Amino acid sequence: MPELFAGSAKVRSYVVIPARYASTRLQRKMLLRETGKTVLQHTYEAACAARKPSGVVVATDHAEIARDVESFRGDFVLTSRDCASGTDRVAEFARRMPKAEILVNVQGDEPEMNPDNIDRVIELLEQDPSAGMATLATPVQTSEQLANPACVKVVFDEAGRAMYFSRSPIPFVRDPDTSRPFNDPPMFYQHMGIYAYRRDVLLEFAAMQPSSLEQAEKLEQLRMLQTGGTILVAIVDHAASGIDTPADYAAFVARRRTAG
């Protein structure tokens, strides 16, 4: 059992990386290692570079992923095979860690995650005790991206509280100003798949039934909004490129070789 379960009065926040073995578009993507490290190890090391978390742990139900984490001396927990989502894996970890006040869900296929983004979502909850959940957004770069259902969009109020998330282009601009460059000044924002939760809010959220809007859009965060919860949103300049397809991974490997 990892040392993080020894217990400490200093424990405040943890990054939890849900990592499943199966992937429909890119088989075994967490374990791909053309760079000399697996995708999961890159993500883990990026998370470890954040300043605020007390620790980083991988939550998985697969022995091969657990062995990979052991090989680079990371921490992991084995979670139930019944977990339907990454959020459920994070919640399972939270139930075992009563001293963790904030849990940050970082997807395992984000090897280029900016550690500052992890610190930022934690800061959002530290600064607003009334909020139970926080995430990030970045301006949409192209009209093609705006139209792509795989690019989740978010609108938020002047206090930075999410109003809605959608796979559709939101907001709808009835009379666009074609004399301006696209999205300048920004109106369309891409949601980034990183979440920070207060522990009690996460456990309540995971126990809820999926909401109707969540089921319609296939966006889990809508469950929080539809049940009256608050999601804080901070804006960052750039989104890291997640890995979903062979082309995504090839591009990542090329960037690493160029940088290295």
Beta fraction: 15-25%
Q: Please tally the β strands and state the result.
A: 9
**Helix coverage percent:** 25-40%
- Enumerate the spans where pLDDT stays under 50 for 5 or more consecutive residues: 5-11
Please tally the helical runs, counting DSSP H or I stretches of 4 or more residues.
Answer: 9
**Number of structural units classed as domains:** 2
Q: What is the third-level CATH name, the topology of the largest domain?
A: Spore Coat Polysaccharide Biosynthesis Protein SpsA, Chain A
Task: Give the biggest sheet.
Answer: 9 strands, mixed
Class per helix and strand makeup: alpha/beta
> Can you give the mean pLDDT?
91
In terms of quaternary structure, the protein is single chain
Sum up the structure in keywords.
260 residues; 9 helices; 32% helix; 2 domains; nine-stranded mixed β-sheet; Spore Coat Polysaccharide Biosynthesis Protein SpsA, Chain A; alpha/beta
Short description:
This protein has helices spanning 39-48, 63-71, 86-96, 115-127, 143-147, 199-207, 212-217, 222-226, 246-259, and strands spanning 13-18, 55-60, 76-78, 102-106, 133-139, 153-156, 162-166, 189-198, 231-235. With 260 residues, the protein is α/β, with parallel strands linked by helices.
